[in-house]
Amino acid sequence: MGVFAQEINGVVITFFSTASAVGKTLISTNMASELAREGKKVCLVDFDLQFGDVSNYLQLLPQRTAYDLQQAMNLQGNAVRAEEFLTPYEYHNVVFYVLAAPAKLEEAYNIDADKAMDMVRQLQKVFDYVLVDTTSTFSKLNLALLDLSTIVSFLGIVDFIPTIKNMKIGSETLKKMNYDKNKIRLILNRSNAKTRISIEDVENLLGEPFYHILPNDFHAASQSIKDGVPLVLRSGGSELGEALRDLVARYTNRVYDDAGDEHGPESWLARIFG
Question: What is the pLDDT of residues 115-127, one digit of tens each?
Fold first, then answer.
């Protein structure tokens, strides 16, 4: 695999949330696709170990998974080449690689967090970008990933009070970890879904604006998953696809959101969670 000959120190972008069904996999597969389209060497790691959907979204049939890589690491130690356990995704002239989640539930339970982190560090040496899709918990593995990550994409949606409560808890927990302010990026997905809760109210509650806002486009997202072709690679384009390209442009250009801390009067959401 000559493409992996040069050793580099890749950027790690972790997709994390404290709520389920917020679009982590849709966004991570599209960001991997866009980065690859721009000529970057990209690996997407599916560390939603029990219920990972990256392979399903991309219609891949992996021959090897993270569990197989761990087994090889147990036997061969540092001699293992993690890149040999990846599955390529190809669409026209765009190619990136996937480290698939374990195929069986019992295999997922047996993934060791320290070994999983070793996998990511190995992949950093051969890819410009290592994107990691995760579960929605502050697990040992996720905490280690948050520490290692160059950028944490913290995703949320504005739909129901419990989801917003979880977002607030997650946001406050991340702030207590004292990361650099530019490391954690709050991203709102499905922004124009029908709801009586305003984005401004949620931003006031969280104490900061969203770094990037993605529109709701259920039809385009569903068709993309059905076809196994990420939105950013589809001809014809869509509003959501363009917003995802814009997100990648902001990340790769290191554009930081320096919005001030001016927030309006206390909202009803703030009173609920105050």
Answer: 999 999 999 999 9
